[in-house]
Amino acid sequence: MIQKSILIFLVFLSFVVCKKDSNDDDLTVAALAALSGGYCNGSSANTGITVSKGTATLDASSGCVTGVTTCMDSALPTWIKNNFKCSVAYVSGSSYIFKSQNVPNTKSYYYGSSSPLFETLPTGNMPAGNNSVSSQKFVYTIPSSPIKGSGTVGTQGGLVSIGITVNGLAIFNNAANPPDTLAVEAQTFDNFGGHPQNTGVYHHHAAVTKVSNNDSNLIGVILDGYAIYGKNAITELRQLEMTLSQLIWIICMGIQKLRFTFLLQLITITLLLMLLQGLTL
Predict the structure, then answer these.
(1) What's the pTM value of the predicted model, to 2 decimals?
(2) What are the residue boundaries of the YHYH domain, all occurrences included (predicted)?
(3) What residues contact 143, with CB distance under 8 A and at least 6 apart?
């Protein structure tokens, strides 16, 4: 691996030495980046080419919008590395840092009718005004060891996003912008349960149908460090609790049965001894 990195560095260095124009600095930076192999491991990590909604396409190999980077620091825990994409994430001290362009890796009405990724809204739904998707530069700082608080903190004001989905999109809370209600907001969702607000921030308020569909899949992580799972996760936990309860019940019943059997045997032996003693007398 070290030899390969050195070879890459020498190739880049040859360009730097031979080329005398204003791009020298850029090539030097690229060479050093190739040598370090730490593209995801620091604040210099980027989310790829800025996406233009009018020309956006999907990359079948990455599952993201073409040009959007997926890069996960090797130091991240498995539950992040194996599930998150269309974003960059790395470890920084006691935090996980996520960077995202926040562009949906699905077709959407909100890409605009001229976009290759345009599709109509679900039957009965209506547009969210003139809102449309636009590339963002979101940075999330997530505690790596979340601690349950003693109270609650409101999320209605002051936060652009309260979390990030596994496919790099913003999570909003379960409230709508007054005077609307979430039920009204839901009527503007695209086929994947999301929509943009007036500055182009595409987001989800509820279930992410691209990620979770009546199952227990990982949906994303919130700013407090806790992961979000599909609605059936609690059902599966309850099923596990029931299974454990049933197992404990079976064990207890078995113990009770053993005790009862032992008691019967003890009584039988005692009666036999008494009978034998009586015959002897």
Answers:
(1) 0.70
(2) 140-238
(3) 94, 95, 96, 224, 225
